[in-house]
Amino acid sequence: MPMHVSVMIAMIAVAVVLAFCGWVLLFRTGHILHLVHHNHRTSPRWIQDVPGHRLIFKPWYPIYLRVGGVCAWLLALCLVFKAVLIVVR
């Protein structure tokens, strides 16, 4: 198998993983928030006192997660576009 085909397959695989992560961040935000709040409640006190650990309780945190999901989708789209260019060229 030529090198450019294996690079294309690797790019597509990474794009699929990024697309899934973006989907989770966009459409399962409530589940992610529940998970991180539960982890915060059950973690040891010294972890709860780490600076920035209370970020998950900010009212804008769900929007932050959704923006991360959109960025993951855009990165996946760029990878697919680059993989197509590798094959076409």
Would you kindly provide a brief summary of this structure?
This protein is an all-alpha fold. It has one domain (3-88). It is built from four helices and no strands.
Number of strands: 0
Low-confidence stretches: none
- The number of helical runs is 4
Instruction: Write down the overall mean pLDDT.
Output: 92
> Hey, roughly how much beta strand do the residues contain?
under 5%
Instruction: Tell me the Rg in angstroms.
Output: 18 Å
Helicity range: over 70%
Count of the separate structural domains: 1
Q: Which secondary-structure class do the elements indicate?
A: mainly alpha
Overall outline: elongated
SSE arrangement, N to C: HHHH
Distance between the termini: 17 Å
The major sheet is characterized as: none
